[in-house]
Amino acid sequence: MTKERVLEKLKFDVELRGLSKNTQDKYYTKVKIFQDYYNKPATELGEKEIREFLHYLTTEKNLLLEV
To answer: Which of the four pLDDT bands, split at 50, 70 and 90, describes residue 57?
Structure first.
């Protein structure tokens, strides 16, 4: 699956779930940033990459993560 197809599927799924437009946009943006960081579709990434990306956000970008 391509990065674009992942985003299309995500858009469809969050619309189907009835999430607010604001929430839909945030989901889309976050997945796009994650995919672009690795230059791979999210379907090819796993827990290891998620943890590395979260570490990057907290250490390099100084973003606090809400748990």
So the answer is: confident
In this prediction, residue 62 carries a pLDDT of 78
Distance CA 60, CA 48 (A): 17
Q: Which residue has the tokens 């997945």?
A: 31
Where in the sequence is the domain holding 53, given as residue range(s)?
A: 3-59
Q: How many domains does the chain have?
A: 1
Within its chain, how far is the Cα of 35 from the centroid?
7
* C-alpha pair distances (Å), 30 with each of 5, 41: 15, 13
CA atoms within 13 A on the CB side of 60: 6
* Mean pLDDT in residue range 25-51: 95
The whole-model pTM stands at: 0.82
